[in-house]
Every structure is written in structure tokens, then in C-alpha cells.
């Protein structure tokens, strides 16, 4: 038994933001039927590592789903879609603005077909002035407050590698869909769920708008920047939060030989001892958070003078033994090979019918009564026969639909 068992999701998503949402729904136990155009989700063919085989881009975002093809621009395709909508609990899409309306299925029409339908859309933007614009990951980062606040003061705005615009929005969409499913239990009605990538990134950049307002009352002293204008500056690796932090270098000095160290008020004494500067623990120039605040750069320099002589794993162990929060910068290679992530089901080996075994990132949502079993992504149209058969389409008609370019 799974949390969402019995929930049927008609998944018209493509690329990343939408598929990341429906994959989570599938892992929570929903029956996710991915409806693709007859050429398939474009990511099946993007960034291919093996010729003729669905890319890792696709396989890592579409696990545990079934796939059907349907040409939504054909009359028969629209008829079949109508039947699918009647049988579904949730419809999810992330096409460019207006695409589903142009297919002939406005929200009003969908409600007529199935009043219990939850219709979730992911777009780049909300209904304001940007509504008609398409969006990709880094556009959302640019317009949601992430890029302006990422990077160093003397460098350009930077994109983060974490896909906060795409997968970040997908997770927000899941929250909306689950709430709508819950509300439907009392209202017996579906509803529209709309999530915009710009909004999701802004939600994740919330603390930077906190700081924008704090600027009116003086400089942001927890940032290492020396001068402040009227916008929150880029502040490198500063935590920017209540507890200062920085990424300091470790031995042997490779691109990921760094550890991120947080200095809590209680952490200064053990840190000063570990780094061999025990005399600073009680020195009034260093002893209190207030004393250290104007010279955070110097403080992290003192810490780095010690970390640079040790590898990041040794530093991790020594600082954690003294209860000092810290985290080594783990490379993608280290992550994919990390034994604890394997044991925790966060790096999972999956068997794909055409590519063989590949690794994917498992579900970060761990429920005690709804365990996740990660299964392969489907081949294009793999479940046409099964699903159209359930709708009463005969084998002969199926062949005809294929010949006519409907499926
Ligand atoms: N049968 C027939 N046609 C289909 C179809 C199907 N099953 N599925 C999709 N199509 C058609 C759509 O109807 C649309 O046609 P029209 O424009 O003629 O109405 C067409 O395919 C293109 O859809 P699109 O606008 O979604 O595709 P695009 O490649 O031009 O744009 C993207 C891609 C991602 C920019 C756009 O979908 C978008 O802005 N989505 C919302 C934001 C989003 O999710 N972005 C994240 C992308 S991941 O980085």
C-alpha cells in the first residue's frame, strides 16, 4: 500500500519542472500515465550518452511512470484525451503559456468533463506582465532573486547548479496537488493548481528579501562586504544568516577540497583549540560574536590556516567531534559513490530495458507507511496497448491509430 494508491495522474509534462513533480507523485504511489506527443518528450533525445537510447536526462526524471503517445492535434486524439480526462484525478502540464487551451481544453472544458479533476500547471510566470513568456531553469533563477544574490561581489551574477527553478518548482507543484487532493475529500470538487517558476525561486530566495528590507536600517553586518548600496549584494559563500559561515580550503588543494564551517557562539572555544589558537577563546578581541563580526574574513582566515593542512574528511571528523557544524564540499563523483547515500536509497541503481543499469537520485520524501521502490522510466508509447486497451480500443483500431499518426 502506498500513500497515493488509487490516484490516477495524467501527466502531460515534459523537460524537467513538470516531470520532477509527477515522478514524486509516482514514488508516493500514484499511477502516473505520461502522455507524450508521437515524437516523445524532447529530453528523450537531449544530451544522449548512448546512441538511440533514452537519455539520462529523461530516465532520471520519469521513473515509475507508464507512457502513452497521443497526437493532441488530431480529432481522434482529442476524443481519446477526453476519455482519459474523465478517468483521471489529476492532470499536470508544463507547456508554454496557452498550449492546452489551444488544444481545445480550457479549464472550463476540463471541469465540464470531470468536475473532480485537479488541473495543475507549471509556467514560467504568474498572470502579470510576464505571463506569455516561456521560461527555462536559469531564467527563473535570474528573475526570482537567485542570480542577483549568488556569486562574489566583484564578479557577475551566477546560476546555481541545483535546479531550483525546475525541480524546485516541481516540488511546490506537488505540495499544491496534494493539498487539492485533500480538499477534494470534503468538497468533492477538483480545482486549478498553478505554480510559476519565478514564484518558486522567489519563495526559496525569501531571506534575501528579508535582507533587502533590513538594508534600510544600515549595513548587513553578517556579510563580508565592506560597502553597501541600496540592493542586497552578492556575498560569496557567506551564510548571511544568524550564524556566520564560510568555505575554507583543505589539503591537498583540489577544486573540491573545501569545507563549509559555521561558527556558532558556542563553537568558538572548541574551534580556537582545534586550530591551535586556544589563547583566542577568551581574548576580548575574539571571544564574543559581536567582537568577531567586523572581522569575519580574518576569523575564517585563521580557521583556514589550520584546515589547509588537513584533508576535508579529517576536518569533518575533528570539527564534528567538537559539535561544530560543518560540511565538506562533496563533488558529484563523491556523491554518486557515497556509501551512506546508497544505503539511504538516495542514490539508486535502476535497470532500464535498453540502456541497462543506470544510477538515479531516489526520493527525498521518506514515509514509514509508503516505501518507495524506484522502477525504470518507460519507453516511448510502451503502455499504449495496455492503457488504450483499458479504454476499449481494439487491437485493429490501435494499429489504425498508429498508421494515421494519432498515437
Ligand atoms: N500532441 C500534439 N502537439 C503537442 C503535444 C501532443 N501530445 N504536446 C505538446 N504539443 C505541442 C503544443 O500544443 C504546442 O503547440 P502550439 O504552440 O502550436 O500550441 C507545442 O507542442 C510546443 O509546446 P511548448 O510551448 O511547451 O514547447 P516549446 O519547446 O516551444 O517550449 C518550454 C518549451 C519549456 C520553454 C515551454 O514549454 C514552457 O515555457 N513551459 C513552462 C515553463 C517550464 O516548465 N519550463 C521548464 C522547462 S525545463 O528547463
Automatic annotation (TrEMBL):
SUPFAM superfamilies hit by this protein: CoA-transferase family III (CaiB/BaiF)
Record keywords: Transferase
Top-level EC class as recorded in UniProt: transferase
Pathway the protein contributes to: Metabolic intermediate degradation; oxalate degradation; CO(2) and formate from oxalate: step 1/2
Reactions the enzyme catalyzes: formyl-CoA + oxalate = oxalyl-CoA + formate
Transmembrane segments: none
Region Disordered, annotated ranges: 220-246
Residues annotated as the enzyme's active site: 166
UniProt cross-references to Pfam families, sorted A to Z: CoA_transf_3 (PF02515)
Record's keyword annotation contains Transferase: yes
Binding site for CoA: 16-17, 70-73, 94-96, 102, 134-137
InterPro entries, alphabetized: CoA-transferase_III_domain, CoA-Trfase_fam_III, CoA-Trfase_III_dom3_sf, CoA-Trfase_III_dom_1_sf, Formyl_CoA_transfer
E.C. code: 2.8.3.16
Residue stretches of biased makeup (Basic and acidic residues): 220-233
Function: Involved in the catabolism of oxalate and in the adapatation to low pH via the induction of the oxalate-dependent acid tolerance response (ATR). Catalyzes the transfer of the CoA moiety from formyl-CoA to oxalate.
Family per similarity comment: Belongs to the CoA-transferase III family. Frc subfamily.
Protein name in the entry: Formyl-CoA:oxalate CoA-transferase
Lineage: Bacteria, Bacillati, Actinomycetota, Actinomycetes, Streptosporangiales
Amino acid at each position: 500500500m502506498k500513500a497515493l494508491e488509487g490516484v490516477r495522474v495524467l501527466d502531460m509534462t515534459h523537460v524537467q519542472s513538470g516531470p520532477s513533480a509527477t515522478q514524486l507523485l509516482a514514488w508516493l504511489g500514484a499511477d502516473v500515465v505520461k502522455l507524450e506527443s508521437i515524437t516523445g518528450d524532447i529530453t528523450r533525445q537531449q544530451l544522449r550518452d548512448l546512441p538511440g537510447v533514452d537519455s539520462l536526462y529523461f530516465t532520471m526524471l520519469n521513473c515509475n511512470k507508464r507512457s502513452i503517445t497521443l497526437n493532441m492535434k488530431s480529432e481522434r486524439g482529442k476524443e481519446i484525451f477526453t476519455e482519459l480526462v474523465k478517468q483521471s484525478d489529476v492532470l499536470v502540464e508544463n507547456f508554454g503559456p496557452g498550449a492546452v487551451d489551444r488544444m481545445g481544453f480550457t479549464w472550463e472544458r476540463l471541469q465540464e468533463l470531470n468536475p473532480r479533476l485537479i488541473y495543475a500547471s507549471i509556467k514560467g510566470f504568474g498572470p502579470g506582465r510576464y505571463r506569455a513568456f516561456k521560461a527555462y531553469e536559469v531564467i527563473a533563477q535570474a528573475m526570482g532573486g537567485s542570480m542577483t544574490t549568488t556569486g562574489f561581489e566583484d564578479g557577475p551574477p551566477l546560476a546555481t547548479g541545483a535546479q531550483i527553478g525546475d525541480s524546485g518548482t516541481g516540488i511546490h507543484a506537488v505540495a499544491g496537488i496534494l493539498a487539492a487532493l485533500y480538499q477534494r475529500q470534503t468538497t468533492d470538487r477538483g480545482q486549478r493548481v498553478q505554480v510559476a517558476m519565478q514564484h518558486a525561486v522567489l519563495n526559496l530566495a525569501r531571506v534575501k528579501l528579508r535582507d533587502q528590507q533590513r538594508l534600510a536600517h544600515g549595513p548587513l553586518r553578517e556579510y563580508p562586504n565592506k560597502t553597501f548600496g541600496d540592493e542586497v549584494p552578492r556575498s560569496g559563500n557567506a551564510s548571511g544568516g544568524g550564524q556566520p559561515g564560510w568555505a575554507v580550503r583543505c589539503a591537498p588543494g583540489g577544486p573540491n577540497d573545501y569545507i563549509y564551517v559555521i561558527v556558532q557562539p558556542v563553537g568558538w572555544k572548541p574551534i580556537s583549540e582545534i586550530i591551535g589558537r586556544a589563547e583566542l577563546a577568551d581574548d576580548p578581541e575574539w571571544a564574543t560574536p559581536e567582537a568577531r563580526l567586523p572581522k569575519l574574513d580574518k576569523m575564517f582566515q585563521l580557521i583556514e590556516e589550520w584546515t589547509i593542512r588537513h584533508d576535508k574528511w579529517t576536518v569533518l571528523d575533528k570539527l564534528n567531534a567538537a559539535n561544530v557544524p560543518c560540511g565538506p564540499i562533496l563533488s558529484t563523483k563523491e556523491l554518486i559513490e557515497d556509501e551512506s547515500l546508497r544505503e539511504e536509497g538516495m542514490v539508486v541503481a535502476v535497470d532500464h530495458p535498453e540502456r541497462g543499469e543506470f544510477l538515479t537520485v531516489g526520493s527525498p520524501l521518506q514515509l514509514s507507511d509508503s516505501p518507495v521502490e524506484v522502477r525504470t522510466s518507460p519507453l516511448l508509447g510502451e503502455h499504449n496497448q495496455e492503457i488504450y486497451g483499458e479504454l476499449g480500443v481494439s487491437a485493429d483500431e490501435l494499429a489504425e491509430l498508429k498508421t494515421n499518426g494519432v498515437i
